[in-house]
């Protein structure tokens, strides 16, 4: 208990210093809490959405060709291994609300279910009764349509127009995820549920179903259950497919999570640096006190314990106030992240892992940061300290510069590790470079005589000042680096879509695309060419787990002029020849290749209908299809591998871009009950760019927090410098230095630290961006966002100016007689 009391007394002796140290830890803790909570919540939401979409099913029974008899459902439900099963059919309709909606905005995809109340389906009813006749729609759709449960809606169906009641309104769910606004409705169908019997009747498909989803009993053996299913389905035109939840098919957020952790953790690391600086200065100030303690019997372990108690007190205060602040920050971040995706996502914040991780990091990082100062305190030489023998400072500068230069050479290593070499090299070189910059400013007469005084003060405490300046530099560097990545991604999206969209319009249908349908489309005014292609979702296994992606069949004649993929190192003809020559060869999209983790020429195992097949990876290609999480195979080889597959997707080219919309409207009018989706290249481009501004704003907010923490570090350093020089300031005042001159010298000190940090941050950020473009295996290009560069420079200087306010006021408020009495 004594150690806690002594530690508390030591902290309260330097109230201002302790306050700013706690403030920095507090912000670091809240930042890490918000980031961990946001990432965990996003992961939970992604998994939950997949589960809701698939209905927690274990297996699907799918048609070899469009539909199969629904009597199979009754057989499946009687299987002793099956807990629950549901029949599914998706169909397209048009609706009329009696308003001024464009025909392209009135496509409705109705999913017919054999049972609305089923263990595989989770619906939270807001109003109405889902089992009533009619359709079930989600809340967001009801709000946009201005409809309530019981209202009638005019549906256009193949069997004639009908007035259909809205049976119920339910909470938004992935199964019913439609457009978030009328603008998006131009390229996305609205969603509704109804009974399977109603959908079969509306579309003249009595006795047919497209899919059966089923769940095994908990105690059932999977192998035996699948064997039983095979017996039951024998004789039907169907195949079995295991349901694997692979979030990478729709969400590829790992890199986003990594960047969030990096930037969120930066604030915590900066606060640890501030703690290190504060503690080190505190140890130096209290060397005599430590020597006396050792003289009266304190052993090194007790000295360490004393300082560690101080660190724990600071950390506990940071956690106590940081975690509540983190709750608020997490709420803002999660809203910002999910709003940027512009989807109807309902979510509950996840704190299961967040709280223990934050507490662990909030205690461990400050303790690790304190190890060196605490060790230094325990090794204080009693005799040398009490006799005030001057410390012989070892000349580390030359060694530090040499090691720093050697580490800088590591940035030319062709690996992501090169970025770490760059940062380590800059860190070691920073005091030397900062010293040279300060001398240049001094020689240039920056801020006159007061600037000269400020320069001398910085040079006397170059290590302490450099520590805080380098932190500001890293915050600015990271901001510039992240902004550059976003600018590059935005530019690459446009380039990638233009290079791999496969034409001017993409469309997909509910029924197979026949040559008759293609012939009708080809007659549309403005259409130059139309092509149908096949694709198949398959499971693929890696060392870690089983995943799922789509293999696309490629037609050489079409892709030579309208490719769905590209390779910057090879032309299309070579890629297509490569695919044609090897019957089991596939090209992987860049994201799939990265997730797979093998080398060109290695085998990849796919699983189709529970049968393993080995394919050979021929290369990696860039593509906008499925975000790069896909594979391509030559069309003839594809047909042999998947003989029952039929084309549901098509590509259209037009003579002039101005007719894209007209062709799209013609498609919608001609195939109102078959067209599932139609999208122009510009709409795809807009969709992919839509989330970028929101996510970038999120990162900018986190970086601003880091810069603010760096400003607190500069403020704390200045306060310590002022406290060290109270007597010196008193002497300056005694020889006619005015309060304004004292203020100007302290502001100059802060501004010079800000200039060094900002300048080095910008240079390091540019170097990081350049090294990243050389080493990353992506299409990232070297782009320097000028607006972010200017904003970083302004923020860096502004934050250093603000940081000088309190220390300057403190310096000029000292009474002259008291200041002169200070040691």
From TrEMBL:
Alphabetized InterPro entries for the sequence: ABC3_permease_C, MacB_PCD, Macrolide_Exporter_MacB
Record flagged with keyword Transcription: no
A Pfam family matched in the record: FtsX
The entry's keywords: Cell membrane, Membrane, Transmembrane, Transmembrane helix
Ranges in a coiled coil: none
Subcellular location, record wording: Cell membrane
Domain MacB-like periplasmic core as annotated: residue spans: 18-230
Family listed: Belongs to the ABC-4 integral membrane protein family.
Protein name: ABC transporter permease
Organism in which the protein naturally occurs: Brevibacillus ruminantium
